[in-house]
Amino acid sequence: MSKRNGYLAACSILGAAGLLALKILIAPPISEAATVVTLNPDQMTLTAGKGLPSFDDTYQRHTGVLDTLDRR
């Protein structure tokens, strides 16, 4: 490859990189965010099962932290 061909190749690569950078600066790609799904706590309360165990029965008995407290 002659000196001139190397110079032209380098100039074309730099030109393409410059045009790409200019395009990104002028009109950046637009990203599309995910849709937000909201939960309705009232609807969750209405559709929850009626025979579920209480919080004390399920979780606090496994922690051992409240074992020293007097439960009356």
Explain what the structure shows.
The chain has 3 helices and no strands. By secondary structure, the protein is mainly alpha-helical. The model has no long low-confidence stretch (mean pLDDT 79).
Task: Note the main attributes of this structure.
mainly alpha, 72 residues, 0% strand
Largest sheet: none
Helix content estimate: 55-70%
Strand content: under 5%
Encode the helix/strand succession as letters. Answer: HHH
Mean pLDDT: 79
How are the secondary structure elements laid out?
Layout: H1 3-26, H2 41-47, H3 55-63
Task: Offer a concise description of the structure.
With 72 residues, this protein is mainly α.
